[in-house]
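Standup notes
- DV: blocked on the single-chain target, sequence here:
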Amino acid sequence: MNNIEELQEAIRQLSSVGREIIAEWLRDFMMEEDYRVAEPAAGYGARVKRDLMSIEEYLKFEEGTPIRHEYVAGEIFAMSDGSLEHGLIGANLLAAFHAHLRGGPCKSFMNNVKLHLEVNESKFFYYPDVMVACGPQADSRFCTNPRLIVEVLSPSTERTDRREKALNYRQIPALEEYVLVAQRMAEVTIYRRSEHWAPLILSSLEETAEFRSIELSLPLGQIYEGALVHPPRVSA
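- DV (later): unblocked, structure below
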């Protein structure tokens, strides 16, 4: 491409999903460092230097190590511990989901539960920060049919959450919503299958996030309770 007009025309020819990916990439590229979340990047995503693993080898390996690893088409990547803010946001969501879902067929899970999926014959195991699955699971070691997935963004994981995981999660037939929650500022982005995965961005503590997949509404103030490093000023 030789000029901006050709680039614009190429973007127009993309599908709605393709244009969304470009928009997300530009948004991520232009994001200032001050608006990124508080968790240190070091430690996450380090590839474990060993031969490609089978699924059974990976599951056995995970049972014997205190460090969680995600599995990407035979390669495994170590995960770091999250910040206090990361943990508080996840705990706020889990508590609200658990109370809302109590007694029903759906269960909420924290980031110690693996998610297994397959995309184009490649197999993956991730540890979503929070997810909700309904009905029985085929294997007690992992989940395969989440209805809702929430990832709390970190500097070390944001690119993966916005790109790789966003695309792979959409291949899960049961998934209805994918939600990204920033740490250091109030920002919740909701993607819904019913809306062709178009992003809905909420950025005020007074706004309400609708988790339609589980029929629950939560004010952002409740999601971020006790977690914001620099809470926004409230105008008089």
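- Follow-up: Confidence is low (pLDDT under 50) at residues 30-43.
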